[in-house]
Amino acid sequence: MTVDTPIEFFDRYQQKMITEDVYGESFLRWIYGTPSGRLALAVVASRPAFSKWYGWRMSRPASARMVTPFVEEFGLDPAEFADEVSSYGSFNEFFFRKLKPEARPVDSDRSSVVFPADGRHLCLPNVTKADSFFVKGQRFDLEKLLGCKTLAARFENGSLLLSRLCPTDYHRYHFPVSGDAAVTRELNERNRLYSVSPIALRQRLDYLWENKRTLTLVESPGIGEVAVLEIGATCVGSIHQTYDPGTVAKGDEKGYFSFGGSSVITLFPEGSITFSDDLVEWSSKQTEVYARVGDICARVN
């Protein structure tokens, strides 16, 4: 696959392949696929100041006029929104909007693990042995991702779920399991910010651990220690945690991203869970599965 290859994913609900309608596609393909674009990426676009400026711009009252055209162009369903489309004071307020509880029911089976966010998902049943993610030969570096050699060793041969959120998605993320959640730690707070779109990750998977990240450990009954990481990206204003450390329930809101694409990575201990069949099947073909927060992604062994 190259930077120009269309982004396709399998929609769990429609049971068919979909070609993604990428917000800002021409800019992404230019900046990650051309010499002049890569120069602009290095000099300007990857710098935290650029993303902060863009986030500020999307928080200005004038940006509110972008909301209705965006909803119409990308076919979003206002009936899911907790508030009226006309009520948002800026595009950023709309971007991290809340939904009605019934719009995202959480699977109630005690043995299930749920997706932490709306988005396109890939899984690795064994993150240590996998050598193919978007492009053959790219592997996850757990030590760099987690920022700790000791912690990385605890997840050796564990399972990984990568949940990629597009600008068109619901941008609040939730706990995939119940348990005792520790205080969130920030990693690489001052690092540069890169896109987490396949357009960028086809070039370098390293962008995931070079970006700003936040890490929360959850001790979950029947599973053990689960690591939940939020990954910043170009034009993500910031990562906000809204939960209180302590006891959390599966599906509880954990936080939200300000404007921009972003990702959530969830790591499970070796042998603790088994991913859903469709997720395993399509991930083996380097194809993401679209699914919504609260739906089953795995079951506890």
UniProtKB/TrEMBL annotation:
User: Pfam families this protein is in?
Assistant: PS_Dcarbxylase
Cofactor dependence is on:
pyruvate
Pathway the protein acts in: Lipid metabolism; Phospholipid metabolism; phosphatidylethanolamine biosynthesis
Uppermost EC category: lyase
* GO MF annotation terms: phosphatidylserine decarboxylase activity
**EC number(s) for this protein?**
4.1.1.65
The UniProt transmembrane annotation reads: none
Going by the UniProt record, its keywords in alphabetical order are: Decarboxylase, Lipid biosynthesis, Lipid metabolism, Lyase, Phospholipid biosynthesis, Phospholipid metabolism, Pyruvate, Zymogen
BP term (GO), one: phosphatidylethanolamine biosynthetic process
- Coiled coil where? none
Q: Which InterPro entries match?
A: PS_Dcarbxylase, PSD-B
Xref: PANTHER family = PHOSPHATIDYLSERINE DECARBOXYLASE (PTHR10067), PHOSPHATIDYLSERINE DECARBOXYLASE PROENZYME 2 (PTHR10067:SF17)
Q: Write the protein's name.
A: phosphatidylserine decarboxylase
This protein's species is Sulfuriroseicoccus oceanibius
